[in-house]
Amino acid sequence: MAPALLHRRSDDAELVRRVGAGDATAFATLDARHRAALTRYAGSLLRRSEHDAQDVVQDVLIRAHAALRAGDGPEELRPWLYRLTRNRAIDEVRRARWGDEAIDDEFATAGVDRDDPETVFGRRESMRRLVDDLADLPVRQRTALLARELDDQSPEQVAAQLGVSVMAAQKLAMRARENLIRTRAARDADCADVRATLLDSHERGVRPSEHGLRHVAGCDACRAYRQDIRGLSEQLQALNPVFGLPLLAGLAKLLGGGGTKAAASVAAIAIVATGGVVVLESDVLQPGDPAPFRLGGVRDFNGRPVTTGAPVPNGNVVVTTRVRVPAGRPAKGVKRSVTLPCPEGMKFARSVQPEQRVPRGSITGDLTSAIPGYSTRSVTTFVQGASSRAFDYTVAIVCRRPDANGSVVPNPRRVKPGERQGRICVDDEYLLEKPGTVGTVIPLNTVFRGQPVAIQRRNRTGRWTRVAPDDGIAEGWVRTKTLCR
After folding, report:
1. DSSP 8-state code for residue 161
2. Domains in the chain, number
3. Are strands 428-432 and 464-469 parallel, antiparallel or unpaired?
4. Cβ contacts of residue 74 below 8 Å, gap of 6+?
């Protein structure tokens, strides 16, 4: 190995140690050293414009800074940064398909005669489809496959990263390869055959074959055909003016568990469970009702935490349910989840649930990433290993009625003279002390999609805007492009 590379690795390790110790200038050095190369790499995967790659790398470096500050740094920094960039770029491809220009010419033509346009185009198209197919894989399968094939990790390392057994890690990688092969085969299937299969499955009331669904995912015409089938059924059902009312009434009775109060409250809120998950009991707690458990992050009028038995504070409604999740893995393509909606006119404010144990290997997560002040429901999903036992789990959310600016924060900061109302339009963004990038400027806080902010001013270039979030914790700078226009 070249002495210069060894020196850089050693120097990177020292800088990582300094970042973990709180040295802000150390990350600025790492940023300057690696940003350009990471941007070129991100561009090779998803280039639509230079700004797309820059945004991905900015997000990667923000997350890397947070991890290093928390002491979660890797053994080798450079490969770790490239892995983060690759995974973030693939997620970006999944979020927004960018068509035939998704692969950079230099990347697509590596090792190919540049004077052969047909070969160049074919390789670019093949790589674009591969990145798209990787983006569609379940996250755990994709992580296992890329860790084995690109990161050269051993099965034991992959298993430790995913928190599963070595055999399970190997099966995840195997399923990922199998899914990629099946997706490629389905993409080339005949559209007429696929549409006949879609119509037949709809008539029989069964789920289309996996082969057909894979084809539909990559074929706009067949996807539109399937939507037309569904749309026609919905229109026909709408001819019945009382359609669905007996079902909703029966559902409210079952969810209420026989209790008058629960049945009455759930009648207006349909809690939906899927994939074999069974709703055992549900309730909607109004202001003044005793809290069933400690409501983390919720405080009363005097600023005290809401503990078990304390009244739910004014302006808050708690939607809660206890569900039973069956043992074993769900059938292929089936998701186990429970959806908690807010009452009409209210928005999701936060998730709350009591401390509870679940079987080893069981994972819960908010699949929809419910956004405070923006979302009207929260979906919790359950993933279990084959040896897991059935378990009960309590899920709850706090809903609030947004104020005129859309804030669900108690006593939100108000817009002052000279400011104007705005809103964040990205999933999350660091609030910086002054215009710059993480590493050169210490972040003050994080703002989230849909969060109201008071817009104070822009910097000389117009690329950065100073804002005051509604939570009143801190004021600082965000990229202007992260604000709703």
Report:
1. H
2. 4
3. unpaired
4. 80
Same domain, 36 and 116: yes
Whole-number pLDDT of residue 378: 87
Backbone angles phi, psi at 83, to 5 degrees: -65, -45
Q: Is 164 part of any domain?
A: no
Looking up residue 450, the CATH number of its domain turns out to be 2.30.30.40
Q: Which two tokens stand for residue 213?
A: 């669904």
For residue 172, is it within any domain? no
- Joined together, the tokens standing for residue 134 give 């990787």
Sign of CA dihedral 378, 382, 325, 296: negative
Which residues does 170 contact at the CB level (< 8 Å), separation at least 6? 155
Q: Token pair for residue 295? A: 């409501």
Using alpha carbons, select from 355, 340, 325 the residue that is nearest to residue 265: 340
Which residue segment(s) compose the domain that 318 sits in? 245-400
In a domain? residue 153: no
- What is the token pair recorded at 91? 């997620």
Q: Please check whether residues 293 and 383 belong to one and the same domain.
A: yes
| CA triple 258-263-265, angle to 5 deg | 155
CATH of the domain at 113: 1.10.1740.10
**Between the CA of residue 1 and those of 4, 9, 187, what are the distances in Å?**
9, 11, 43
Instruction: List alpha helices for 416-476, DSSP H.
Output: none
Instruction: Write down the residue that tokens 């709408």 correspond to.
Output: 238
Q: Which two tokens stand for residue 250?
A: 């029966």
Query: pLDDT digit string (tens) for 435-473?
Result: 877 767 777 777 877 788 899 999 988 899 999 988 787
* 102 lies in the same domain as 62: yes
What is the pairing mode between strands 391-400 and 272-274?
unpaired
What pairs with residue 337 in β-bridges? 274, 381
What's the one-letter identity of residue 448?
F
Sign of the torsion angle spanned by Cα atoms 305, 311, 316, 319: positive
The per-residue pLDDT for range 25-63, each reduced to its tens digit, is 888 888 888 888 888 878 777 655 555 778 888 888 888
Residue 39 belongs to a domain: yes
Burial class (CB in 10 A: 0-12, 13-18, 19+), 319: buried
Indicate if 255 and 302 belong to the same structural domain. Answer: yes
Radius of gyration of the chain (CA): 26
Name 323's bridge partners: 279, 393
Q: Computed from CA positions of residues 67, 71, 72, 75, in that sequence, does the dihedral angle turn out positive or negative?
A: positive
Kindly report the length of the chain.
Answer: 485
Strand bridging mode 363-366 / 420-423: unpaired
- Around 100, how many Cα atoms within 13 Å sit in the side-chain half-sphere? 5
